[in-house]
């Protein structure tokens, strides 16, 4: 049985048949076949019994059946609960309060991190950095060349621009 016949029998694509073979759900034997052009080529031959077994397996439901809700006909309640309605409401209220506090704490930490990450970075040219630091432009350029201050090059090249946070660190180390 070739791959096309196997795919048709299973109701899947040839790609799916190859995937089943890679997963070890189907095995193949190489078989030499002479084509219409007279050339001999190798094709994969699938065991029909194995294909039928896989077909039955694929026809089985993949999810277990849903549990049936038990109805308590002796009382006015729709469901038979192991505790009364007020206990259930108290349990739900306690759970949502704890969950709310946990979510609020996690959200506030994530929000602070997100704000820090998305805060725009102020980039300064050498003259702007010099004015802000209270030093000469030449001193900023020498610090960049000596790698005491990091400059980020733009598209046009040149010395580039300095992050304001890097400049603040540089000023502290003066």
Can you give a write-up of this model?
By secondary structure, the chain is an alpha+beta fold. Among the domains are: 3-59, no CATH class; 123-172. It has helices spanning 3-10, 14-22, 48-59, 85-118, 126-133, 137-145, 164-172; strands at 28-34, 40-46, 123-124, 151-154, 157-163. A three-stranded antiparallel β-sheet has the order 3-5-4. Strands 1-2 form a two-stranded antiparallel ribbon.
Number of separate helices: 7
Mean pLDDT across the residues is 79
Spatial sequence of strands, sheet with the most strands = 3-5-4
β-strand number: 5
Low-confidence stretches: 76-80
What gross morphology would you assign?
A: flat
Helix content: 40-55%
Major β-sheet annotation: 3 strands, antiparallel
Rg is 36 Å
- Separation of termini? 81 Å
Strand proportion, as a percent range, falls in 15-25%
- From the helix content, strand content and strand pairing, which structural class follows? alpha+beta
The H/E string reads: HHEEHHEHHEEH
Q: Main attributes?
A:
174 residues; alpha+beta; three-stranded antiparallel sheet; flat
